[in-house]
Amino acid sequence: MTQSSKPRRAVVVGGGIGGLTAAVALHQAGRQVTVLERAPSSAPVGSALSLAPNSLRALDVIGVGDEIRHLAAWQGPGGLRTPGGRRLSRSDAAAATERFGEPLVLLHRATLVDALTARLPRGAVRTNAPAALVDPGGTDRPARVTTPDGELTADLVVAADGIHSGIRRTLFPAHPGPVHAGFTTWRVVVPLPGVEFASHETWGRGRIWGTHPLKDGRVYAYAAAVAPAGLHAPDDERAELLRLFGDWHEPIPAVLAAVRPEDVLRHDVHHLARPLPAYHRGRVALVGDAAHAMPPNLGQGGNQAVEDAIVLAWHSDDLAAYTAARLPRTTAVARQAVRVARLNMMSNRAGIAVRNAAMAALSKAGPALFLRSFDGIADWRPPQRPYASVGTGKR
After folding, report:
1. Taking all residues of the chain, what is their mean pLDDT, rounded to a whole number?
2. What is the Cβ-side half-sphere exposure of residue 22, based on CA atoms within 13 angstroms?
């Protein structure tokens, strides 16, 4: 496709991390971008987000990487523990940085949303704007999207409308869609002054908990437990967390003591068990959970959405190339996330004993061996500068 026939107007449906990253990347590539967010506000619904080295490199392409790196708060040791506090494995921030060349950054979603939104033109993000795909378009016509304010046409539509994506259903009506992963999650971000702790994740029987510091002094904690879909606490979710985790090791009781019921977010976990046949159709491309929703246990859902966005901007004139670049990688990452979820949420006592012994043995072999499971994920590099090989740049 010639330079003059590249998509010039892009409509992004969904104002989450993947959608905003795509919008910034496409804007910087010369597109006229409109982001349609169905929520009445652009303030993110969520808590914290983990950005791994692969997505930090992706963010470098749009000039956000260093801004986010400065928020890295994990220093020194961390590790995996049992509910009673026994250490199963040790990890170290320096070892991870040495292996992958980048830190792991935990930050509030609002921080990244603000950084991305600041790089878009005023008025590019429209809130309270639910959208539906009318026509995916083709080589002879633009795509068409309807909103309460009328219809928009675009040379490129980016479907970043989440795990229950309406655009995905329109493009691939025969796909079964998301399935319940068998467990639910809770997340909180709270101040915890005067409490010192090492960053950790704790694995129990069909339950896990993680506690990590943020750069702003607050604490990000998450939990998960095997549970049927649609279940809710009979009183409130803080009380449910106390029942499930209140007798686990410190600082978990201290975190729960600082939490108010309204601080707790609870969500059932769903994922796309069957990969899509493609991540595009016509002039529409899917990114993030709309394309490859995965369990959160590998911490790669948001990271893969950021990767998608940057690679899509690179291949925006050839969506088949975008699918070819992203579908095999994200399918492999999603399958690994499912395997980790099964390991995390194990409830068989004999299996848990074997799992814990294996984790302890792996840790004793050294952090490099423990980190090897992220090879091929955290060491990914985007095709654009500053990471593209000499002579490969298209712009």
Report:
1. 92
2. 35
